[in-house]
Amino acid sequence: MRRPARIQDVAAAAGVSVTTVSNVLNRPERVNARTVERVRSVIADLDYVPHPGAVGLRAVHARSIGLVLPDIANSFYARIAKGAADAAYRQGYALSLCHSDDDPAREQEYLSMLVEQRASGAVVVPLSADPGRLERLRRRGVPLVLADRTRATEEGCSVSVDDVAGGTLAVRHLLEGGARSVLVVNGTRGIRQCADRYQGARQAARRLRGVTLEQIVAERMTVECGTEAVRRLETLPDAVFCTNDFLAVGVCRGLAERGADVPGDVRVVGYGDLDVAGLAALTTIRQPVEELGSAAIELLLDEVEAGADHAHEARVFAPSLVVRETA
Amino acid sequence: MRRPARIQDVAAAAGVSVTTVSNVLNRPERVNARTVERVRSVIADLDYVPHPGAVGLRAVHARSIGLVLPDIANSFYARIAKGAADAAYRQGYALSLCHSDDDPAREQEYLSMLVEQRASGAVVVPLSADPGRLERLRRRGVPLVLADRTRATEEGCSVSVDDVAGGTLAVRHLLEGGARSVLVVNGTRGIRQCADRYQGARQAARRLRGVTLEQIVAERMTVECGTEAVRRLETLPDAVFCTNDFLAVGVCRGLAERGADVPGDVRVVGYGDLDVAGLAALTTIRQPVEELGSAAIELLLDEVEAGADHAHEARVFAPSLVVRETA
């Protein structure tokens, strides 16, 4: 078996000093990019593993970011994680997955863990809107970016999708197609995204005379509740805007039960562009979810690395309309 | 502003010694569970953050596990991640998300990073079957559990689902329903899971006289390719077994195009029990995916913590049949 490579071997093979190799390992920002690349390539070729002493505590810790999410099995959050993982990888940071499982106590434990482990920072999709808890993290020196939420830029960075604009896009498309009575099948008022999407729908409806906009609040945002909403209607509207794709699939089923053709008799738009939207040929609103994750990491690392030069930013992404067959 | 709490304050408030608090932070397995709980609760109440020196390098590092996956936005892997995150949380370990994005070079960089950072161990859903690379990790002292793969127990632990049994379950159900000609719509041979599911299908078919089993290999495992497979059939079989749910949704569409009733004329079974299976009312095979993730972490931590007492294990999970409307 070959003798394990030492730092001197790496330096010799890369044609640099031992100090430069050490800097590549610990403070790559001080070394020019080409040299970093060459040294890393030699490290890979020689299968060199630094001695624990060679990579200092600071260096290892400084290169880890926490990603705190309510549910990694939910495709919306999984896509945020993908965007975040890609961006963290590109910048040479490890990403610690903190899956709070919709449990505020667990979320809090993860936040404490990130402080204890001196993480470089955290991207958080918060469960509760308790700003005090998150502030505490920032006071402890762990910079924090909120994802899928907006916040005042005095408090820090955030990334979100403009759901008001999404609601407007959806209903404007229905009105341009000739609809004059529009039903919104929505989730409960407590969900900020639902309230925003409905507000956007109202803004679009107000711009045109003679348009009626009604709302039904579904108990849950599922296929079954969408179908149930249609069963309870006395008269059918010209068009339905559902604030997620599952509701929209259910609404299409309910309309089929009542013998109504989609889009001939009733036009339907969903929200989210989930897998099911493609399968059901739904016209829907797409959110740039992976971009949300990668932008969160970029803003965070700007705060971590630029220090005093960093300016907080509330980055808001625009959704887009995806036209398929239902409207 | 209140003076930050010190370890002495925690000890006093919890009624234990400073050593016990330190043990709770670094070696909680040596402290009884009630005391751990009480001390942690005081730590939370006092908002105590240990000094970096109080949590040793070993302790911080020893409590991190790498999770290496091809694609976190794929719901199968996202559910593995959920199971793994839950198990790591229960045992007090951080989980480092290593999303290789289907790129072998990136997977390799992540593996090197885990070695450099002295991770406690890693759970890997490997992209390639290059055992040398993974072996190297293990030789470097990073224990490794393979997920969604089997391996000889001399080499280490693995967790997987018995896909041969899954194929048998699917086709046995079709035969019990009276089918005598069964078509398998499969992915390419190179995919181990596809080969296993087909092998299981053949085993079920061989047990009954007069059964014909044919196979079509779809270019990709998508809805479109499933529909296309049906379009090219000269005669329709009694039943179709698709080795994933997207193919099965496509096959149902193709059958509808040809005026065949499902399940009246042709019975269809899918595989995976993805979201789309519920929406399309597919009869399908369910895999215990989250259990795969949590079992991988448990086996890994047994190896990390039990040391010489650990025995490698190839844990194989049984899939189950979910009967809905298509068969």
From TrEMBL, chains A, B:
<keyword id="KW-0805">Transcription regulation</keyword>
<dbReference type="InterPro" id="IPR010982">
    <property type="entry name" value="Lambda_DNA-bd_dom_sf"/>
</dbReference>
<dbReference type="InterPro" id="IPR046335">
    <property type="entry name" value="LacI/GalR-like_sensor"/>
</dbReference>
<dbReference type="Pfam" id="PF13377">
    <property type="entry name" value="Peripla_BP_3"/>
</dbReference>
<keyword id="KW-0804">Transcription</keyword>
<dbReference type="InterPro" id="IPR028082">
    <property type="entry name" value="Peripla_BP_I"/>
</dbReference>
<dbReference type="InterPro" id="IPR000843">
    <property type="entry name" value="HTH_LacI"/>
</dbReference>
<dbReference type="GO" id="GO:0003700">
    <property type="term" value="F:DNA-binding transcription factor activity"/>
</dbReference>
<dbReference type="Pfam" id="PF00356">
    <property type="entry name" value="LacI"/>
</dbReference>
<feature type="domain" description="HTH lacI-type">
    <location>
        <begin position="5"/>
        <end position="59"/>
    </location>
</feature>
<dbReference type="GO" id="GO:0000976">
    <property type="term" value="F:transcription cis-regulatory region binding"/>
</dbReference>
<protein>
    <submittedName>
        <fullName>LacI family transcriptional regulator</fullName>
    </submittedName>
</protein>
<keyword id="KW-0238">DNA-binding</keyword>
